[in-house]
Description:
Blueprint: E1 8-14, E2 17-24, E3 33-36, H1 47-51, E4 58-61, H2 78-91, E5 97-102, H3 104-115, E6 120-126, H4 155-162, H5 172-180, H6 187-197, E7 213-218, H7 226-235, E8 239-244, H8 251-254, H9 256-268
Parallel strand pairs: 3-4, 3-5, 5-6, 6-7, 7-8
Antiparallel strand pairs: 1-2, 2-4
Helix pairs in contact: 2-3, 4-5
Amino acid sequence: MNPKRADEVRFINVAGSRVRIATRLYTVQQPPILLINGIGARLELWRPFSLELPDRALLMFDLPGISGFPAHDLPLGMPGLARWLIELMDSVGVEQVDLLGYSWGGLLAQQLARDAPQRIRALILASTNFGIGTEPPLGILPLPNLLPNDRGDDPWKLLSAVLGGPPGERNPIGAIMNALNPLTTPIEGNQRQLYALTGWTSLPWLHKLQLPTLVIAGDDDPYVPKSAVERLARSLPRARLELVAGAGHLLPINRPGPMAYLVDDFLRQFDA
Length: 272
């Protein structure tokens, strides 16, 4: 199966904001995986993971304010961002998606699953939680622990991704320089994403989500406690929980192979 165009990167207009997207849409009838990023990260964070899924249609994007272009509207809460995602899907002519939210993106994925379940075939939540009630909160940068370690995460890589630098490299100086570049800075996007977190939780309505759901997490994630991941999975009526042994928070970068295997295995049950 050959793609029409592999990971084509271009700019589109969504609700007045200039948005950078990357698409891999196949000729067969297969919903693309819509990939929602974490705090401050650009679509490049998905590159290692996307290479492990060569036969899946993908739709990746930068949230408003992340690519260095100012967002057109005021900062949005999670419901507003869910409506924005629907406009994004409509702009590229995609009616239904398999929705994958990573870290902060997992919260937005839950909101979209609540507000527009008819637009989602299956839901995947990776390295994420349910908002208020989880410690530590996802919005905190990994500043207290910046020394490389031999566990599942490399904190330098996480800091680099948050600052908009190369997500797969231990290059914090380059990331900081990139964050200070007015042409590429994700600072506005960071602030908008943190604003959306304010007062948000999915706990009161998770039990109402009837979408088939895969919950993935590293069993050594220092930012999302294992207890929170287990509670998230228990709260979802049709959830399957998978823990990646020895993995930390950066699953798409540090464990792209195992993560892609779990995602592909989960989605195969829905393929025609």
